[in-house]
Every structure is written in C-alpha cells, then in structure tokens.
Amino acid sequence: MAKTESVDARGLSCPQPVILARQAMQAVGSGTVTVVVDTVTSRDNVTRMAQRDGWKVASEPTREGDYSVVLSR
Fold first, then answer.
1. Among 2, 13, 15, 17, whose Cα sits 20 to 30 Å from the Cα of 42?
2. d(C-alpha 73, C-alpha 50), whole Å
3. pLDDT digits over 19-28, tens only?
4. CATH fold for the domain made of 3-72
5. How far is it, in rounded angstroms, from Cα 41 to Cα 26?
6. Contact 33, 68 (CB under 8 A)
7. Angle, vertex CA 52, rays to CA 39 and CA 25, nearest 5
8. Does 40 have pLDDT greater than 90?
9. DSSP-assigned letters across all residues of 36-66
C-alpha cells in the first residue's frame, strides 16, 4: 500500500511550506503527499522543489481559494 501524507501550510510564508513538503516527501519515500497552501508563490515554490526532486505534481485551486498541490512518486 502506498504511503500518503498531508501538509497544511496555509498561513505560512516561504520557505516554510517548502520545508514541510520536503519533510513529508522524505517520510513517504514514494507515495503521495498533498500540500495545501494559500498563495501562488508557495504553490509555485513547492511545485518547483518537488519537480526538481523527480516527483510528479498536480495542482488545483480549492473552493476556499487555497491550492491543493498533490505530489506523487
């Protein structure tokens, strides 16, 4: 069974969302990490970091106006 982690990084300024996402990615190893952020900058920074580390990234806005960034490997 694939591991999954969720990170709520809303209200945090960079680089905190990236640091929390990276920690979750390391804990999972391979699987899925969902990161919720509330700014475009945080979304873009988490996306860039994950892609650089070889993870697939899917991002979509939530109804609340945040962004759900799903990282998988």
1. 2
2. 10
3. 999 999 999 9
4. Translation Initiation Factor IF3 (3.30.110)
5. 22
6. no
7. 70
8. yes
9. EESSHHHHHHHHHHHHHTT-EEEEEE-TTS-
- If you ran DSSP here, which 8-state letter would residue 20 be given? H
Cα–Cα dist 42/61, whole Å: 13
CB 29, CB 59: distance < 8 Å: no
Model confidence, pTM: 0.94
Q: How far from chain centre, in Å, is Cα 7?
A: 7
Tokens for 29, please give them.
């190893």
- How do residues 57-73 score in pLDDT, each as one tens digit? 999 999 999 999 999 99
Q: Quick one: DSSP state of residue 29?
A: S
Residue spans of the domains in the chain: they are 3-72
